[in-house]
Amino acid sequence: MAGLESDVKVGYETLNALIKNKAALHKFKEFIIAQGGNVDVVSNPKALPQAKIETKVICSEEGYIQKIDAAKLGYCAMRLGAGREYKGQEIDLSAGIMLKKRVGDRIEKGQRLCTIYANNEAKVKEVQSLLVDAIKIDNKQVPKTNLILGVVDHMALKLHKLINSYQKD
């Protein structure tokens, strides 16, 4: 997208080489330093703010993940403190939701659907049922969704087929 490579495959190979030789990691650390952040979080994620409450949301049925409502998940994360409801509201950097499954995945009754990270038990209770409601499960198998749907560059949207064709090679 930056025009450094003329071919998508060559671009991916270049990116993979930068990841392997740790040049990308060093550049990421430079970004953190430039923004006044703690570079230790790269090698020690425990240096990040940690939530006091970690609640596993367990699936009450078996089947396939049919749909995940991103708007509802975003609302839940905001209610936990991971986002703002109004301008000036403080953000809890330790709050959030970690999904364990994605659309198309099989899930069994009793398996973990997601994990809630928070510092307020009342907010955890508030979002638990909303989270379960945001994830639709049914016995019908559906195809897994692509993680990358498309690429936007200076010209236009390139269809996800470009990326998918590379990933299948």
Provide structural commentary.
- The mean pLDDT is 88.
- The chain is 36% helix and 21% strand.
- It has five helices and eight strands; from the N terminus they run ααββαβββαβββα.
- The protein has two domains: 1-47, no CATH class; 49-138, Pyrimidine nucleoside phosphorylase-like, C-terminal domain (Aldehyde Oxidoreductase, domain 3, Alpha-Beta Complex), CATH 3.90.1170.
- With 169 residues, the chain is α+β, with helices and mostly antiparallel strands.
- The two termini are 21 Å apart.
- The protein has helices at residues 8-20, 23-34, 70-82, 121-134, 161-168, and strands at residues 53-58, 63-68, 96-99, 106-107, 112-118, 135-138, 150-152, 157-159.
- Strands 1-5-3 form a three-stranded antiparallel β-sheet, covered by helices on one side. Strands 4-2-6 form a three-stranded antiparallel β-sheet.
- Belongs to the thymidine/pyrimidine-nucleoside phosphorylase family.
- Keywords: Glycosyltransferase, Transferase.
- This is Pyrimidine nucleoside phosphorylase C-terminal domain-containing protein.
- Residues 64-138 form the Pyrimidine nucleoside phosphorylase C-terminal domain.
- InterPro entries: Nuc_phospho_transferase (IPR035902), PYNP-like_C_sf (IPR036566), PYNP_C (IPR013102), Thymidine/pyrmidine_PPase (IPR000053).
